[in-house]
Amino acid sequence: MSSSEYPTDPQCIFCRIIAGKAPARVRYESGQVFAFDDINPHAPTHVLICPKAHYPTFMEAPAEVLATLNAEIKSIATHLGFAERGFRLQVNNGRESGQIVPHLHYHFLAGRSMHDHG
Ligand code: 5GP
Ligand code: ZN
Questions:
Q1: Does the CB atom of residue 38 touch ligand 1 within 6 A?
Q2: Of residues 105, 107, 115, 117, which has the active-site annotation?
Q3: Percent of the chain surpassing pLDDT 90
Q4: What percent of the chain has pLDDT over 70?
Q5: Is the pLDDT confidence value at 19 over 60?
Q6: Ligand 1 pocket test: which of 49, 95, 99, 100 has the largest number of ligand atoms within 8 Å of its C-beta?
Q7: Whether pLDDT at 67 is above 80
Q8: What is the pLDDT of residues 77-108, one digit of tens each?
Q9: Exposed, middle or buried, 69 (CB in 10 Å: 0-12/13-18/19+)?
Q10: Span from the CA of 2 to the centroid of ligand 2 (angstroms)
């Protein structure tokens, strides 16, 4: 899928990363999904997984986009080597959640025990 086929926002930092106009360590890319390392990691592996299309929040993303994202997160978990070991997925949605970047993204956190702390 090319960028002319889905909504983007030229002001959005994640749209700029997806378009290759801002730097990031890319971990995965497919037609609809893009994943890159978080600039401020909270775990040894902290990858942000997002649709290439710009939807500001989880609530605003169409169900089909969420379905694709979830399916591909399974592949990404395997690709990154955490399918068996485990990982945490976190989505901040909207005003009270702590969401800072208004482009839907899942935090994929892995590589340490998360039993005791966030
Ligand atoms: P939120 O609070 O919106 O769920 O999380 C946004 C995340 O994006 C934060 O963990 C933050 O470190 C990360 N982030 C913000 N700006 C950039 C950037 O320019 N590049 C990368 N790789 N990560 C970013
Ligand atoms: Zn965006």
A1: yes
A2: 105
A3: 92
A4: 98
A5: yes
A6: 100
A7: yes
A8: 999 999 999 999 999 999 999 999 999 999 99
A9: buried
A10: 15
Looking at the predicted structure, is the pLDDT value of residue 118 above 70?
no
Is any atom of ligand 1 closer than 6 Å to the C-beta of 39?
yes
- Which residues have CB under 8 Å from 88's CB, separation 6+? 43, 107, 108, 109, 110, 114
Q: What amino acid occupies position 64?
A: E
CA 105/CA 17 separation, integer angstroms: 13
Which DSSP helix (H) or strand (E) runs through 29?
Answer: strand 26-29
**Alpha helix (H) ranges present in the chain?**
13-18, 63-80
Pocket test for ligand 1, best of 13, 36, 48 (most atoms within 8 A of CB): 48
Q: Which residues pair with 34 in a beta bridge?
A: 29, 50
Q: Which atom of ligand 1 is nearest the CA belonging to 37? A: 22
